[in-house]
Amino acid sequence: MLKFYYNPVSVNARRVWVALREKQIPFEPILVNLDGDQLDRDFSAINPLQRVPAIEDNGFRVIESLAILDYLEAKYPTPPLMPSNPEDIAKVRMVEMVALYELQPATFPLTRVLLGLDVDDRKLDAARERVTTVMQFYEDLLAGRSYFVGEEITLADIVAGTLVPALPMFGFSLDVYPHLKAWSEHLALRASWQQTTPLPEVVEAALPNMRKILERRF
Ligand SMILES: N[C@@H](CCC(=O)N[C@@H](CS)C(=O)NCC(=O)O)C(=O)O
Q1: Same domain flag for 115 and 184
Q2: pTM passes above 0.85
Q3: Is 124 in the pocket of ligand 1 (CB under 6 A)?
Q4: pLDDT at residue number 124
Q5: The pLDDT value given to residue 87
């Protein structure tokens, strides 16, 4: 059975978890505590970069959430989470990459503030500006559709959806982005979303580990 190495508070792992649920792929969840287990020799053998998520499917290992999503789509194509026409494929990839390479890095300084760590003011301003630019980009792309590509969920929604609904936590209201707000509420109704939402007490317990990771890496 496919092994899924994860942690319940990891947004990178969550997007894989949602895809596994959406595709109803049976899997064995393997919890990696982010208080140091990720640095152990056993887990380093699975992912030398020492991060979740990772999967092992019939002895084949994949790391990096986007690579895992692509693997799952190719190996388990039903139901599809990737459209087939060129424009829609480009849209999905744009949304995914903007989420990973623009939005997610902008949340690191903002998370540092939430956790009481020091942050350079200029970095913070740049991060805030980057977040609002991405929100507007997504708002325009959604343009009243249920999902980024029409009426069916795709990897675009799964990847952006593991980040955007958390933005109000940093002081960005979704009220000024009505399409983004409706989309976010729509996603929250899906069983895959509800099954993978971390409980508040789990998030609370993970805060010291998050603080250590942020201090070390960002
Ligand atoms: N680019 C990677 C990022 C993975 C990542 O940073 N995972 C975090 C949890 S959200 C982690 O395992 N951090 C442990 C550490 O930095 O020690 C992906 O998309 O899978």
Answers
A1: yes
A2: yes
A3: no
A4: 96
A5: 96
pLDDT of residue 58: 95
Whether 49 is in the pocket of ligand 1, judged by its Cβ within 6 Å, is: no
Fill in the amino acid letter for 78: T
Alpha-helical (H) ranges within 99-188 are 104-114, 121-142, 155-161, 178-188
Q: Which helix (H) or strand (E) holds 44?
A: helix 41-46
91 plus 179 within the same structural domain: yes
Residue 204 inside a domain? The answer is no
Return the closest-CA partner of residue 22 out of 182, 158, 163. 158
Examine the domain organization and report whether 64 and 106 are in the same domain. no
Angle at 182 between CA 186 and CA 200, to 5 degrees: 60
Nearest to 192 by CA among 149, 147, 161, 156: 161
Q: Looking at 15, 48, 80, which one is the last position of a domain? A: 80
- Residue 99: which domain range? 86-194
Best mutation site among 7, 9, 12, 43 for ligand 1 pocket (most ligand atoms within 8 Å of CB): 12
* Distance of CA 186 from the midpoint of ligand 1 (Å): 27
- Whether 38 and 6 share a structural domain: yes
Domain count, the chain: 2
Per-residue pLDDT tens over the stretch 51-101: 999 999 999 999 999 999 999 999 999 999 999 999 999 999 999 999 999
